[in-house]
Amino acid sequence: MIRCRLSTLMGQRKLKVADVVRATGVPRTTVTALYKETAERIDLDSIEALCRYFECDVGDLLQREASER
After folding, report:
1. Which residues contact 5 (CB under 8 A, 6 or more apart)?
2. Are 47 and 61 in contact (CB under 8 A)?
3. What's the maximum distance between 2 C-alpha atoms anywhere in the chain?
């Protein structure tokens, strides 16, 4: 399972969804879906914009959790 850490990154900086949307140009629906971890697909341009804004690597934004089998 892939987990998105956007809510953690935003919480550390006390940012709102609107702040991230305004600063990155990423659509509000995308930021909200990533924040709530309901996104099923992410555009590479959106990932790049978020990583640039938070000055992080993709692995800091998205993390793979081991699945239980």
Report:
1. 60, 61, 62, 63
2. yes
3. 41
- Count other C-beta atoms under 10 Å from residue 61's C-beta: 19
- Type of residue at 17: V
What b-and-e string marks burial along 23-57, b requiring 16 or more CB atoms within 10 Å of the CB? ebebeeebbebbbeeebeebeeebbebbbebbeee
pLDDT tens, the chain, 69 aa long:
899 999 999 999 999 999 999 999 999 999 999 999 999 999 999 999 999 999 999 999 999 988 766
Task: Give the amino acid at 63.
Answer: Q
